[in-house]
Amino acid sequence: MRMQRFINVFFVALTALVLPGLAAAQADEARAKKIIGGSCFLCHGAEGESASEVFPRLAGQNAEYIAKQLENFKSGKRKSSAMASMVTELTPEDMIALGQFYASRQPHKEPSKDAQLAAVGQYIYHVGNKFSGVPACASCHGPEGAGSTTLPRLAGQHAAYLDNQLKQFNKRERNNDNAVMLSIAEKMTALEMAAVSEYLSGK
Questions:
Q1: Does residue 52 surpass a pLDDT of 60?
Q2: Between these two residues, 3 and 55, which has the higher pLDDT value?
Q3: Rounded to whole angstroms, how far apart are CA atoms 13 and 52?
Q4: CB atoms within 10 A of CB 126
Q5: Are 121 and 163 in contact (CB under 8 A)?
Q6: Which SS3 state, helix, strand or coil, does residue 181 take?
Q7: Which of 11, 15, 32, 71 could form a disulfide with 101 if both were Cys (CB 3.0 to 4.6 A apart)?
Q8: Using alpha carbons only, what angle is made at residue 147 by residues 133 and 124, rounded to the nearest 5 degrees?
Q9: Angle, to 10 degrees, between the axis of helix 63-75 and the axis of helix 92-103?
Q10: How many C-alpha atoms does 15 have within 13 Å on its Cβ side?
């Protein structure tokens, strides 16, 4: 009898702890879906799948990284004529909700279009190029290209999008992220950028 009473109290307490968190998560997802349905889906897709290689795939991207990029677009730290007007009305809570929504979606990927180029990219990504001083990308972005809370997931991203971002880092046209990327990208050749991008798109 005493044990049963303990179990009942335990489940009541557990429910009191879990339900508010669950309700908050559902509210955040509803908030994100409303924002996405209003504008984001046009470029990034309803689930962050982005059919166009011009726009990044957001499905499976790290939540904190997405929120940071949105804040950077709003503050002007990261330049984008396309994104500037999209983030004007977003609050910090909106950015967090969007990050969590996309992070919960299944990442997308597609087979490499150029196996030989991808093979070169695989070597550079995991080993680097000691002759030019380019370090292994995996040392920061991880062996699977999953990134971290401060670094983006690269695996499964459009090759053309990744290549364009590397070129922007190379020319210092993008400098809102880790300064280390600037020093790395400036050492990379056009072939190395294209190769790494091709490899990651199919990973």
A1: yes
A2: 55
A3: 48
A4: 13
A5: no
A6: helix
A7: 32
A8: 30
A9: 140
A10: 6
Instruction: Please name which of 101, 114, 105 lies closest in space to residue 201, comparing C-alpha atoms.
Output: 114
Please tell me the predicted confidence (pLDDT) of residue 40. Answer: 97
Spatial distance between the Cα atoms of 95 and 46, rounded to a whole number of angstroms: 16
Cα dihedral: 57, 137, 172, 49 (round 10): 0
Distances (CA, A) of 147 to 35, 38, 189: 25, 29, 23
In this structure, of 21-30, 69-78, 133-142, the range with the lowest mean pLDDT score is 21-30
Domains of the chain and CATH, by start:
24-103 (1.10.760.10), 115-201 (1.10.760.10)
Helix (H, G, I), strand (E, B) or coil at 129: strand
Amino acid found at 132? S
In this prediction the pTM is 0.86
Band (178; pLDDT cuts 50, 70, 90): confident
Pairwise pLDDT comparison (203 vs 26), residue with the higher score: 203
Secondary structure of residue 134 in the 3-state scheme: strand
What's the number of CA atoms in the CB half-sphere (13 Å) around residue 183? 5
Helix (H, G, I), strand (E, B) or coil at 46: coil
- Separation of alpha carbons 172 and 178, rounded Å: 12
